[in-house]
Every structure is written in C-alpha cells, then in structure tokens.
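ok trying again, last paste got cut off:
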Amino acid sequence: MRILSAAQMREADRCTIEDIGIPSLVLMENAGRQVVAAIEATYEDALDGRVAVLCGRGNNGGDGFVVARTLIQRGVDTSVFVIGAISDVRGDARTNLEILGRLGTTVVEIGDEQTWELHFSEISECSLIVDAIFGTGLKSALAGMMETVVADINASEIPTVSIDLPSGLSADTPHLIGDCIQASMTVTLAAPKLPLMLPPSETHAGDIVIADIGIPGDIIEGLDGPRIDLLTPEQMRMIVEPRAAESHKGDFGRVTIVAGSRGKTGAAYLAGRGALRSGAGLVTIATPASCLPIVASMAPEFMTEPLAESKSGTVAASAVDALLALQHDVIACGPGLGRGAAVTEFVRALLNRATAPLVLDADALNALTDDLSVLTGKEERDVIITPHPGEMARLVNASIEDVQANRIQIASEFAASRHLYVVLKGHRTIIATPEGRVFINPTGNAGMATGGTGDALTGMIAAWLAQLLDAEAACRLAVYLHGMAGDLAALKEGQVGMTAGDLIARLGDALTQLTTGGKKEDE
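nice, full thing came through this time. structure:
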C-alpha cells in the first residue's frame, strides 16, 4: 500500500476530480462519512455523550463539517467550532458549512484565545473530540492560539479522532515540527502518510484507519515521485504459493549459512532454525571445525560443514574454497562469525568470488566497514544486507542517532549506490531496493529487542530467497513474517519474557495465519 506525501495526495485529488470526473464535494462527503463509520466502530459509547467537532478553514475543516452533519442526522449531540474566521472558509468547505447552517446547526467561531478559553469549558465536558483543523498541508509549527488549542485538548485526555493527520504534524516528515494533537485514532484518507508510519510522529497518531474515499487505486499507483510502500497482509499473502503435492526438498532451495565462532554457536543455530522454519528444502550450516559438534548437536534437521579456522576460533580466510565447493542456491553469512583479520579476509573473498545470491548480516558487515569497495550487488548476483542501526552507522560512517533520524534516506541511498538490498532492522524495519523503492514493515514489537532475533531473520531471508528467487519479495515476506511471529510470541510470553527461540517457534503459526487470513483451515 503506497504511502503518499502532501504533494502526491494533492495530485491524487486533482487526477480524481479532473481526469476521472468525481466531484471534489463527493470526495469530501465520502471522507466525512468514512470518519463517522470509524468513530461508530470504535467509540460507540462516546456517542451517547456530546461530540465536539473542531474544524479548520480548509478542506480538512470541510471533512469535519460533513462529520458533524452526519453525526447530527444520526441523533448524536454535536457541537461544531471553527478555529479561525468563518469568513475565511472557502470552496467545498464553505459549501458544507452553509449546509450545516441551513439545517439549523449553530457553528461557533473561535478567532482568539479569549474566545477559545470561553468555549473550552464546554468542549472539556464532551465525550469525544474530532480534530478537523489541519490536514496534510501544514508546513510550519503551530503558533499563537493554536498552541493553546493543542495543549488544552491534549491535557483534557478526552478521546480525540484526527482526520487525515493529527493537527500539528507535517505530511512530509516523521519528525515533529512542533506541538501536535495526541490523537486516540487517526482516520487517514485514501492512503497512509509518512508521519503515521514512523517514529517519533507515529506515537501521536493512535490507532490508524485508512479510509477509502473514492480515489481509484490506479491513480495512487501511477503517481510520480518517491515510491514508499507499507507492507500489508494482502500483498504478502499473494507472494506465498501453495506447494504441489509431488514436491520434494530440492524444489525449495539449498541454503548455506556461514555462521558461528568460538562462544557464538547459538547465532548459527538460530539462523539455521529461521531458515528451516521458513521452508528451505535443505539447510547447511558451515562453521569453524571446532564449533561443528556443538552446532550439530543443537538440531538434527540441518546439515553441517566444518570450515578451516583461525587460532581465535573464527573462520579462516582459506575456508572460502571449501565453502564455494558446496551446493547452494543462496549463501547467508555473518551471525556469530566474530571479528578479526581472518574474518575480514574471508568475507571479502566471498564477495569477490561467490556467484550465488548473498545475505550478509552482523559480523560479515562489520568486516567491511573499513573498505566497502567489494560490497556491491551485480546484475547476475543479488546482495542483501540486514544491518541494525549500529551496523548501518558503521557502514555509512555516521552516528546511530543520525541513522535513526534518517532511516529511509540512509537506507535508500546506500541501496541505490551499492546496487543491493538494505533491510535496516528496528522498529518499523525499512527495506530499500537498488531501484529506489522503499518498504516499511508494520509488524513486530519491542519484545523482539533481544539477542538472536536478527540471526533468525538472516536465515529467513535466505530461505525465502532460495524459494522465490526474487530478492525484493524475499525481503518483504521474511521481514513481515518475522514481525508477525514476534507479535504472536509476545501474546504468549509477553514482550519482556520472549526470546528469539519463542519467535522462531511461532513462524509456522504466522505463515498459516497470513495465508488463511486468520481463519482455521476447516472454516
């Protein structure tokens, strides 16, 4: 599902109105009625009290006038306020304002702080507030009376439903440009907006409802400009194809995982289990020879291959020959690999010589930070990297704070310049492709901030890549299922108590839930 900027949203409106011929008044009517539907579904009890609808002077205010009219016609006690001069209300918003007047509804004008203070005592006794003050057009921080309005609404702790965006947020950045409404729910129109998807602004949006207001999907898909998408279960479900009855293990790919070192064999195990639980036909863990007995004893389902090792118990540089002699469709490298000159030489040789697709994580990325010249994808060989913010910071020679503040930009620029796929892990994992597409993953929770969950993801991506033979699809599906399994694990174990093993144990449930739409097979 495409995430739109303010300019893209305006263009989508324009194309719908001018090219398709759907009047703008119809879009506004649809928007208002969809907001009411969302309110009725979530805040039914609040509708027994009084609802305050706070409207701005633009189209967002026009949506609010439709909300107010619809609620009044359904018997809900509703008070309507314009924040600003009523004489400044223009266009379709003016039309809907005048309709309210002809229906006998009093609309209160609030043009200064004194008037706001006078009427806020009334608003503070309401059971629900509808924020229809600003939409996607805000560019600068709120000031003057609007700062007081926002502060008072937030302090009231009355459930607040924002239309399109909580007033005070900018549609073009996830960063806070100033004070904003703390919404309980945001009903965003036609498509998601970036500040609803990424921190810190997402924390002000509450529950998010995406409302269809009649803008055709083809128009949204065809818009020029940045391509940022939100992963959805409907899209992910389409990637997974049922297995044929006559399938055999060779049909689902051979994955080799280069992982582990002295004291870090658990990472190899978790990556291997992630690959197996994601459906890879054959999984081989290639690990330093002294680590092999430990890794092999952890699970009987994956094969193991001993690699020459250094004195410190890491993989030796010479081990690349034995590794490349193995049969594989995908090579994953990095979990628990350790650091040192031998590891660096091994990883660089692997990148130079391997012809199979590569998934690089953890210490494989750390081995390259001093010289990125070999870290590049090729037309005949995809490369996927899965850094956490610290590893990404080392790759781009920036601080973790800079990476976290500019996740989309940093991931997409690195992916494009290096012709590879970047899976930047963390809350709202970012997937960036060499072609400039960006995906944001909505699944997952803070309980996944525990050792080993990233190792499991490495194995998962490798497994899906071996099956799908499509790097973008493999990244999208693996990341989505990884977060979904984490959510299921948190439901059972709690976020504090869950482990990477708990997540892996729920991968089968996550895939079943995704492919069946949450229904049991006999339903």
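cool. Residues 251-515 form a domain with the UDP-N-acetylmuramoyl-L-alanine:D-glutamate ligase fold (CATH 3.40.1190.20). The chain is about 40% helix and 15% strand.
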